[in-house]
Design brief:
CATH superfamily of the largest domain: Metal-dependent hydrolases
Mean pLDDT: 94
CATH architecture of the largest domain: Alpha-Beta Barrel
Structural class: alpha/beta
Number of domains: 2
Strand content: 15-25%
Distance between the termini: 35 Å
Length: 418
């Protein structure tokens, strides 16, 4: 771990912006979206003192020595939260997943991850839930430490380290059957609980299980862990105060994850109305990762016009069924499949596929904070962390406005902008 931290220090292309002098900041945007009210507040200001929000409202007195930042035409929003990222991956149309996991050295992948973290923060995402290093071991723990210590710029990270898969059910799939999975940690039966505890001891904030996967190349995904295995793993994680994310695209894989007590299901491609009603009953959140499906379809030659590939049609149907059932939706695009810094792609698709811009923005701020148990962020309220973003225009009307980031403040410190 010490070697990894040293490597991250050397790889940082530029040092973080100098820490603020401790002076209060008074932000005066044209409008303020607080993460909780559907409509923005016109003419409200925010006072930042230290790393927290001190006051919010229309008539805030300016403290002596405060720095005033006027943001005409802009909307101030909470720092956005990316719900599903892989900072150690880069777009699959550049290098396939197999080649990244098998052939790219850890130093190269770490160098990329440093830049990916910076791009994520500069795009206005001040927190990310990173759901697996995909063959890079526990490097996400070192990356998180480097960010927390101010060595490099990046978002606050929730990490899962290696993720956990059933024996033989993951990849890369190569000719040698004795080759152990490089992308994640294999475990089964009682060993699954051991793997959960081992990953937590190594630094995992969340535990990730693969509830289904392709057993052989070209096959459809099928369930991997039994319900009893998943129940034991989830119980071990929850006992240690960790939430559990389950990769599941099949209806049966999703059913087992729901009944096992998973906190979130990732993808849910083949979810049925019945499965989504079960999710609603159990309070399981869905991270639909629309942007990953969209990106992969484009990599395979789709031009975005009709006719749609079957995978996209299926994804649209599952997303509509989840919404109809009232399932809590996470905003997370599986970024890494597509370029880091392009996180807004998921938000644009969620809006394009039927959600209102205001609901999408809520999902990316207070919604993700609530799902992930982050009660210190996700809204603009006194006492919360001063993670703030200013964008041109009004994203509650046009979600594409979140791409026009003009100011990013993380913990009261300006990392992008004036």
């Amino acid at each position: 771990m010490r070697l990894l931290i040293a490597l991250l220090m050397l790889l940082a292309a530029a040092p973080p912006a100098a820490a603020q002098s401790g002076e209060p900041l008074l932000l005066r945007p044209a409008r303020l979206y607080d993460g909780l009210d559907a409509r923005p507040h016109i003419g409200w200001s925010v006072l930042v003192q230290g790393d927290h929000i001190a006051a919010v409202g229309p008539d805030i007195a300016t403290p002596a020595g405060a720095r005033i930042i006027d943001l005409p035409g802009m909307t101030l929003i909470p720092g956005m939260i990316e719900g599903h990222s892989h900072l150690f991956l880069h777009p699959y149309n550049e290098t396939s997943w197999d080649d990244q996991v098998l052939r790219e050295p850890l130093a190269l992948r770490t160098a990329r991850a440093v830049n990916h973290a910076r791009a994520t923060l500069q795009a206005g995402f001040t927190t990310t839930r990173d759901l697996g290093t995909e063959g890079a071991g526990y490097s996400d723990v070192g990356l998180k430490q480097a960010i927390d210590q101010g060595i490099i710029e990046g978002p606050r990270m929730l990490v899962v380290t290696r993720a956990i898969v059933a024996t033989g059910a993951y990849g890369p799939k190569i000719a040698d059957p004795d080759f152990a999975a490089r992308g994640a940690e294999e475990a089964d039966g009682p060993g699954l609980v051991v793997a959960v505890r081992h990953q937590i001891s190594a630094g995992a904030d969340w535990v990730k299980l693969y509830g289904d996967y392709r057993w052989r190349p070209g096959e459809p995904s099928r369930p991997t862990f039994s319900l009893e295995e998943m129940q034991a793993a989830v119980a071990a994680a929850h006992s240690a105060g960790r939430k559990v994310a389950v990769h599941a695209g099949t209806a049966e894989g999703m059913r087992r994850a729901i009944l096992a007590g998973a906190d979130t299901i990732e993808h849910g491609d083949e979810g049925t109305p019945e499965i989504f009603r079960l999710m609603k009953v159990h309070g399981t959140a869905l991270c639909p990762t629309l942007a990953a499906s969209d990106a992969i379809a484009h990599y395979r030659g789709w031009n975005g016009a009709a006719p749609e590939p079957q995978a996209i049609t299926t994804k649209r149907a599952s997303f509509a069924a989840a919404r109809a059932a009232g399932v809590t939706l996470c905003m997370g695009g599986d970024v890494g499949v597509f370029a880091h810094g392009e996180n807004a792609r998921e938000m644009e698709l969620m809006a394009g596929w039927g959600m209102s811009p205001a609901d999408v923005l809520a999902a990316a701020t207070s919604g993700n904070a609530r799902i992930f148990g982050l009660d210190d962020r996700g809204a603009i309220r006194p006492g919360l962390l001063a993670d703030l973003v200013a964008v041109e225009g009004d994203p509650t009307v046009d979600i594409a406005a979140v791409r026009s980031v003009r100011l990013v403040i993380k913990g009261g410190r300006i990392v992008k902008g004036p």
